[in-house]
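so im writing up the methods section and need the Medium-chain-fatty-acid--CoA ligase record in one place, dumping it here so i stop losing it
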Amino acid sequence: MSHYPKSPLMGQMMSQPLLISSIIQHADRYFGRNEIVSRRVEGDLHRYTYSDCHRRARKLANALGALGVGMGERVATLAWNGYRHMEAYYAVSGSGAVLHTINPRLHPELIAYIANHAEDQYLLFDICFLPLVEAVAPLAKTIKGYIALCDPELMPPDSKLPNLLCYEALLEHSPDDYSWPLFDENSASSLCYTSGTTGNPKGALYSHRSTVLHSLASIMPDTMNISGRDAVLPVVPMFHVNAWGLPYAVPITGAKMVFPGPALDGKSVYELFEQEQVTISAGVPTVWLGLLNYMEQNQLKFSSFKRTIIGGSACPPAMMQALRHRYGVEVVHAWGMTEMSPLGTSCCLQTRHLSLPAEQQELLLQKQGHVIYGVDMKIVDDAGEELPWDGETYGNLLVKGPWVIDTYFKNEGGVVLQDGWFATGDVATIDADGYMQITDRSKDVIKSGGEWISSIDLENIVMAHPAVQMAACIGIFHPKWDERPLLVVVRKPGMEVDSAQLIKFFEGKVAKWWTPDDVTFVDALPLGATGKLLKNKLREQFKEYVLPTA
Ligand code: ADP
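--- predicted struct ---
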């Protein structure tokens, strides 16, 4: 949406809209024989090529047209990472409709709220989600039909779903001659809702232009570094900010695509990595815990895996070190959000850092990193004044860029920008080289005696203890200091450690007044629909907790 003045002399290059359909056309034409491998919900492995994907996406585009889905109309999915989901990515957006990926880990009422808000017309779903879809259907006001992503023989014989269609039957009866329409690159392409941990979820409505630009930026060497010699396995689900854009980025390079389907346990992921010789992956920290535990227990190594992008929440340094030193996997720490498509920063070294001692390099790599060209960022105080880039001063992190949200879908929440910048809700430092480090989410910082304590820092420290599987740090009411840190810990199976030992573990690692006042042990921590710690739930759970008096 250009609101900018025109120069008297305009450039004379072709004006081609940046459309998502151009990606699958490119992949078919230049990498048509390269593979997409999927673990299906049916349990087996499915293999086909970019050409097959393109042909079936064209069939689906015809089928959706025949069902009356028009430009700008929303088509929802409830599906794991797999080839049919990928076909929907291209068919829906490529034909001018809008792909709305829904997180199946949400409650049916919340899914219905989102589907109604989005005014979804059709819902495509993996057959394993049938009970969930049946719970949603009576509450859904705009969905005209449900398309089960399966073969005719797997169709449920007596489902109560209105207008239930079979995906494979639809495709079989649709022609594959379809010309992708050309239209304004600023047209909406896909819609993702934020998880709504506070208030109702809000929709981030991406455009073709923002998606293509984000894809180009994400394959760059200091971002995800994807080439035609890679095999990429997105562990991050296609319903979590479009698997961080990988279904768009990977076909641009011609890399092999490997989809894990619903099998995200350590053993299944490890076996798929090895069998398909995966080189690159991406996911939130919690998914790597399962994989690393499985590998440790079975004394396994990777034979092809070389790089993983970890983000979505802070990657504990202990996890980075295990991946790097024990398994030889490079970890790229990245930061972003639904409102940013999602990538904002990634952390890689520059030439000047190569002569630093190894420990200093590791400390740098623990940061969330450098902006990716296209994104700009700054930190400000509560009055909006910009703060210095000294690596110590922390403030509210603001961003802007061509794949950063301007307004939420249907203008929910009104104007969200501050002088053209989007306030991320994160608190961060930026150092002199422009490396950003998240201190906390502003609602998670622990406010003790007027000063702030970073819950992430405390969690990162204790996660390095050999007996700690997972940890979360929250602020607990304190009559004198306002809040003091409480550490909630899950022990590793079969390991023993007590509160005093863990508190001692902080000695010499943080200022004394940052040390948690107490440690409590639980069997599991509450995780949200995208595998992140739900600190609001934890605060609720421990709101009556009384800290020991010193
Ligand atoms: P949700 O609001 O559902 O968690 P997002 O997936 O968009 O939605 O989450 C974005 C937030 O996740 C960021 O604002 C930030 O707080 C957190 N986050 C993402 N990546 C990182 C990271 N590498 N380190 C710390 N926090 C992160």
